[in-house]
């Protein structure tokens, strides 16, 4: 019997939508809880059925072809429409007023300390967090916090702040390696952060911006900024620190700046409002933005 809609497999469309939205088969696989190979097979089957190449495979990811962008626009609008109808049919449910997605570092060092102040003046709004460094869970939250290039033209995103980045470590570490400036850092153990949801600015970029030599010392790699921060406190190595995240630790003497140099972060911290966001979620967003503006003005 002929189907009333001329559609390919819904599984392949689901894989395609996730891969196109994230421009990554690996990230799509993580979201869908399948393997990257399974996503790749679904995409190739869809491309074969349509007789069109939907992605250009690049060395460090994928990008949409013109045909892929055309299909993605239609699929995303359709999924959003279905999601809205389903949400309306389910009706109101007992849940948190505001759900925020943040990395461990941004939650621990920036967001969580601000919640107490927010609740003192807005006790009627309950804010909860999903803290994740590796998994993208944006579909389940009202707001998400990001570090990266600001998506110009995206009205759902608002910049919070753009920090300066300095090198930090323990006082004992600075003395042990006789560090007085950024030009001393190439020869000392450096802590590198990899595989987080954010792509943190890295040591080669920072040193190059200052005209300092590239790293030749011991490389220490961790996949979580907070672990790297604890290692820096314990004198294991030097770490790059954003003043909005680690400034209070320097003031408290838990860390010291390794030299006086700093650079303006090439990327910014920003907040994104998602489709499910309520008026209370947007009110919390506005409050966070106002706090950031106050910080900058101060």
From TrEMBL:
Keywords assigned by UniProt, alphabetized: DNA-binding, Transcription, Transcription regulation
Pfam families: HTH_1, LysR_substrate
Domain HTH lysR-type: 8-65
Ion transport in keyword set: no
SUPFAM superfamilies membership: Periplasmic binding protein-like II, Winged helix' DNA-binding domain
Record-stated family: Belongs to the LysR transcriptional regulatory family.
PANTHER family reported in the protein's UniProt record: HTH-TYPE TRANSCRIPTIONAL ACTIVATOR TTDR-RELATED, HTH-TYPE TRANSCRIPTIONAL REGULATOR
Protein name per its UniProtKB record: LysR family transcriptional regulator
UniProt source species: Thioclava sediminum
């Amino acid at each position: 019997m002929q189907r009333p809609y001329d559609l390919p497999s819904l599984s392949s469309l689901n894989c395609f939508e996730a891969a196109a939205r994230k421009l990554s088969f690996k990230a799509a696989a993580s979201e869908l809880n399948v393997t990257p190979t399974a996503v790749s097979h679904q995409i190739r089957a869809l491309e074969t059925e349509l007789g069109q190449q939907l992605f250009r495979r690049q060395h460090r990811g994928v990008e949409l072809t013109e045909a892929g962008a055309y299909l993605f626009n239609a699929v995303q609008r359709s999924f959003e429409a279905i999601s809205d109808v389903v949400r309306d049919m389910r009706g109101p449910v007992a849940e948190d007023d505001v759900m925020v997605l943040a990395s461990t570092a941004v939650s621990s060092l920036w967001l969580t300390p601000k919640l107490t102040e927010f609740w003192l003046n807005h006790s009627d709004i309950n804010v909860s967090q999903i803290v994740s460094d590796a998994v993208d869970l944006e579909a389940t939250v009202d707001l998400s916090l990001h570090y990266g290039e600001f998506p110009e033209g995206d009205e759902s995103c608002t910049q919070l702040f753009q920090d300066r980045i300095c090198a930090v470590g323990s006082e004992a570490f600075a003395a042990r390696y006789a560090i007085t400036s950024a030009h001393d850092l190439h020869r000392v153990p450096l802590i590198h952060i990899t595989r987080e949801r954010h792509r943190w600015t890295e040591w080669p970029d920072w040193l190059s911006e200052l005209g300092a030599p590239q790293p030749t010392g011991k490389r220490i790699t961790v996949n979580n900024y907070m672990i790297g921060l604890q290692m820096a406190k314990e004198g294991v190595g030097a770490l790059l620190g954003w003043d909005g995240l680690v400034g209070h630790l320097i003031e408290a003497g838990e860390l010291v700046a390794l030299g006086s140099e700093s650079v303006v972060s090439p990327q910014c911290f920003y907040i994104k409002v998602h489709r499910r966001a309520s008026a209370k979620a947007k009110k919390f967003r506005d409050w966070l933005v106002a706090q950031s503006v106050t910080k900058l003005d101060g």
